[in-house]
Specification:
- A hairpin with a 3-residue loop joins strand 3 and strand 4.
- It is globular, with a radius of gyration of 15 Å.
- Helices cover 29% and strands 36% of the residues.
- The protein has a single domain, classed as START domain (Alpha-D-Glucose-1,6-Bisphosphate, Chain A, domain 4).
- With 151 residues, it is an alpha+beta fold.
- Helix 1 packs across helix 2 and helix 2 packs across helix 3.
Length: 151
């Protein structure tokens, strides 16, 4: 198991353009990723904020917006740094790529950069383990959300 990155993939029965909206529009992201909302300034350099009732807020910065195929951002993924402004020392890179497959869309998410986090080895291991579990759950929530809001 890599200690520097997490890779997960799901297929959603919806066209790429629809899935793009689900991963980039705050009203959707706040429903499947955060349970207390989200804000996204959808442009490179734009701010991003994810909110959870239980986990607090996580801030980030949009890195890439290439509709409808690639969306990337850096976010404060360390629990101990939640609510802090994003820096190179406290963020990881999250990259979504979308690919049409049949009548659906393959969504691949890669979160990388854990080895560069400025924290203890124990906290880094906790972040990797927690986010590995988290992405499995969140992508399941994305699939369920896509089914609820199918166009």
């Amino acid at each position: 198991m890599s200690t520097d990155q997490i890779e997960r993939e799901v297929t959603i029965e919806a066209p790429v353009e629809r899935v793009w909206a689900l991963i980039t529009e705050p009203e959707h992201v706040g429903a499947w990723f955060g349970d207390a909302g989200a804000e996204i300034d959808l442009r490179p350099g734009g701010g991003i904020e994810f909110r959870w009732h239980e986990h607090g807020n996580a801030l980030g910065t949009v890195v890439a917006v290439e509709p409808p195929r690639r969306f990337a951002y850096r976010w404060v993924s360390l629990t101990s740094a939640r609510g802090q402004q994003p820096t190179d020392a406290n963020t990881t890179l999250v990259e979504f790529t979308l690919e049409p497959v049949g009548t659906g869309t393959r969504v691949r998410v890669v979160e990388s950069g854990f080895d560069a986090l400025d924290c203890s080895a124990e906290e880094r291991a906790e972040a990797v383990a927690g986010n590995t579990r988290g992405w499995s759950a969140e992508l399941g929530d994305l699939v369920a959300h896509a089914e609820r809001v199918a166009a």
